[in-house]
Amino acid sequence: MAKATRRAIYVCQACGHTESRWLGRCPQCGEWNALVEEAAPTAPRAPAAERRAAAQPIAIDQVADADPERRLATRIGELDRVLGGGLVAGSLVLLGGEPGIGKSTLLLQALRGIAEQGARVLYVTGEESAAQTAMRARRVGAVHPNISLLAETHLERILAAARAAAPAVLAVDSIQTLHTELLESIPGSVGQVRDCTARLLGYAKSEHVPTILVGHVTKDGAIAGPKTLEHVVDAVLQFEGEGASPYRVLRASKNRFGSTQELGVFEMAAGGLAEVVNPSELFLAERTAGAPGSVVVASAEGTRPILVEVQALVAPPSAGVGRRTAAGVDGNRVSLLLAVLAQRAGCDVISQDVFVNVAGGVRLAEPAIDLGVACAVASSARGRAVDPRTVVFGEVGLAGEVRAVHLAELRLAEAAKLGFTRAIVPAHNAKRLDGTPALELVPVRHVDQALDAL
Ligand code: TYD
Ligand code: MG
């Protein structure tokens, strides 16, 4: 690593105490592992600087809207939608995900989309050699003369190269591999990751170049991972997948320039990531109709309805007490629904082992899937299959009541399009529907009624 040219200090992240060397515990507040290396501040010259450069406030009604025309589309529809319509000039975007999920692949394909519009882009790789990256680019068809590669981890050299090349987009893969010579700590440490990100932010803003950073997260959202960066960057995109499933879901957990509700779905294939334009069809393709414990839920992520199969399996307890395993849905929510089923709907599986899974590897976070989860569990517990042409949605409250959800029309339209003929819906939604739905509605007020209807 390059020799430090400036003295670094260690700052406690809990109380702000500074030390000249790293300590495991802050001597001031006693917090463990809270000292992080930072570049020592230069001598304060604030008053003079303030007089010289008085900033100009501007009346709020005089502020022009950010120009939507300035967005740079990646031509990957699923990605552009999650971004809010493309990359905004000068924005800093963090693309996070577990190692191996496909971040580098997505990035290369996005850069290709931009390069094909005639813009020059710079891809900085600190993880792989230029040869390895070029090989991957060939595999996914992302070889284009407008894409330049730089295999480099030294931040100062990267910034100098970017200023010289003046690309339309800068991509850095990954932030954990970078190091600045201002700090002595190793690449990937909190101090390095934070300082490098702050300076790339400075670059993005001053040069108006949209900059994409790749960041690794581990299962527990490890230290020095993107977690510490979330409030610095403009948008955080999370790339997720479950186990060995080829499907990948992209969502924005933060987006200053768009909604955080949108969802992009991809499939990892031999030639890179393929967009999944109609996820419902795909998620339902492998369904074994007529099996107990399987219920199709009309979910909606952002403005987009997605039908998924929720599977439940109720089995005698293997370890004396009932265990719960949930994949794709929140485990706490499942526990709550089991309690509601037991107390309010006469379906007691509390002492049993209960497994709940969303087929296809998507993760669903909206409450409208509650009713589907409850129905799937009851269906498995009673050994009675649910009609495969019926969809279900609705939020379930603690009294077992079924509550209305948003976007009911959209969910129903998607279900009708895929050949479903009956929908079990919250009574409040059924009352307020515009127009006549293309499928038979069964309005329910209580979980009980839904189970009867099924
Ligand atoms: P990668 O983009 O390297 O993931 P990340 O940058 O998030 O670590 O891709 C990871 C996996 O994707 C890799 O194990 C192989 C697989 N893959 C394909 O299946 N097809 C492809 O065309 C490519 C490029 C990768
Ligand atoms: Mg990678």
Would you give an account of this structure?
By secondary structure, this protein is α/β, with parallel strands linked by helices. The protein is built from twelve helices and 21 strands. The strands form four sheets. It has a nine-stranded mixed beta sheet with strand order 6-5-7-8-4-9-10-11-12, with helices on both faces. A hairpin with a 2-residue loop joins strand 11 (263-269) and strand 12 (272-275). Helix 8 (331-344) crosses helix 9 (370-382). The N and C termini lie far apart (65 Å). Magnesium ion (MG) binds at residues 103-104, 127, 173.
Mind sketching the topology for me?
Layout: E1 8-12, E2 18-19, E3 35-39, H1 46-52, H2 77-83, E4 92-97, H3 103-115, E5 121-125, H4 130-139, E6 147-151, H5 155-165, E7 169-173, H6 190-207, E8 211-216, E9 235-240, E10 247-255, E11 263-269, E12 272-275, H7 279-284, E13 294-301, E14 304-315, E15 324-327, H8 331-344, E16 353-358, H9 370-382, E17 390-392, E18 395-396, E19 402-403, H10 408-417, E20 422-426, H11 427-431, E21 440-444, H12 447-453
Parallel strand pairs: 4-8, 4-9, 5-6, 5-7, 7-8, 13-17, 15-16, 17-20, 20-21
Antiparallel strand pairs: 1-2, 1-3, 9-10, 10-11, 11-12, 13-14, 14-16, 18-19
Bound molecules: thymidine-5'-diphosphate and magnesium ion.
Residues 103-104, 127, 173 line the site of magnesium ion.
